[in-house]
Amino acid sequence: MKNIILSMIICSNLLFAFDVDDLNQLKEEGDCPMCNLSYADLSNMDLSMSDLNDANLSHANLTDTLAHKANFTNSDLSDAIFVRSNIKGASFVNAILQDVDFTEARIWKGNFSQAKIDNCNFNDSALGSAIFKDNNLTNSTFNGAILYKTIFKKSVIGIPK
Amino acid sequence: MKFFILFFTSALLLFANGLQFEHDFDKALQKAKEENKEVMMMYSATWCPECNYMKDVVFKNKKVSTYLEKHFIVLLLDIQKDTLPKGFEYPGIPVFFFVDVNSKEKSKIIGGSKAKIFLQKLKAVQ
User: Which of A2, A50, B99, B120 could covalently link to B39 via disulfide, CB atoms 3.0 to 4.6 Å apart?
Assistant: First the structure.
């Protein structure tokens, strides 16, 4: 019996890479800095103004999420999904953005300064007045994106593959 | 003589091209009744980049402006100067309300988009 309970606990930990307490904190308080939310399903949630500074959000699903002015500073967003999310004014300063899917996301005034951007998909996103500073954008795609008054400062922009 | 004809034609075209905006709800509604059109009321702000993109880029797209001119009286209201008429609530800006002749909200488009998509949305609300 003990073995069954033990294996169930191990399995549940494998199923949820994120910390359940952290996810509950985010849902209840709206903020969760330094939390482990890896692989968490945050789709369709309202995370406006949420503080997710230094959080682990790798592989997290934020499809159709509303996150106006959310703070993703220093967070790990590797392989996260932001498809159709509304993240106006969100801060991605110094965040790890590897293989992130921002397709059709609304990122007006988003701040990507010093973010480690690698192989991200910004296709058909709205990046008006967003700030890209000190980024390497050579292997990320921006097909059909709105780049109205978008600021590219000290960023490397390469020839598309 | 040819120069003057060309000059006047160019000048006429230049003035005819711009989409006309109204800034008063009652006036816009009256005009819509007279011209058998609907009112499209945009609620926006000067500090909102998404709103400015719509005004600076999308409304200047020929297909969009032609469609708007044909079907709507375009009313621009500013969040810092104007309060919305009674019965209208906004979830954020920019928002585009489509108003019937009885001053009631018929439908709305929330948020800006590229010209092609905005045109599709306009056709869908018609």
Answer: B99
How far does the CA of residue A17 sit from the closest CA of chain B (Å)? 35
Taking the alpha carbons at both ends of chain A, their separation in whole angstroms is 56
- The whole-model pTM stands at 0.82
Taking contacts as CB-CB distances below 8 angstroms, the residues of chain A near B111 are: 86, 106
Distance CA A134, CA A141 (A): 17
How far is it, in rounded angstroms, from Cα A150 to Cα B4?
A: 42
Domain range summary for chain A, segments of one domain joined by +: 1-161
Provide the token pair at B108.
């709305």
Which residues from chain B sit within 8 angstroms of residue A126, using beta carbons?
A: 50, 112-113
- Tell me if B53 and A88 make a contact (CB, 8 A cut-off): no
Chain segment B41-85, per-residue pLDDT in tens: 999 999 999 999 999 999 999 999 999 999 999 999 999 999 999
User: A34 CB contacts (<8 Å, ≥6 apart)?
Assistant: A53, A54, A55
A1-161 CATH pick, 2.60.120, 1.10.3470, 2.30.30, 2.160.20: 2.160.20
Contacts of B57 in chain A (CB under 8 A): 148
A29 at B interface, C-beta within 8 A? no
Is this prediction's ipTM beyond 0.90? no
Residue in B49, B111, B114 nearest the CB of A149: B49
The CATH H-level (homologous superfamily) assignment of domain B19-125 is Glutaredoxin (3.40.30.10)
Q: Which residues of B100-119 are buried (b: 16+ CB within 10 A; e: fewer)?
A: eeeeeeeebbebbbbbeebb
β-pair partners for A71: A51, A91
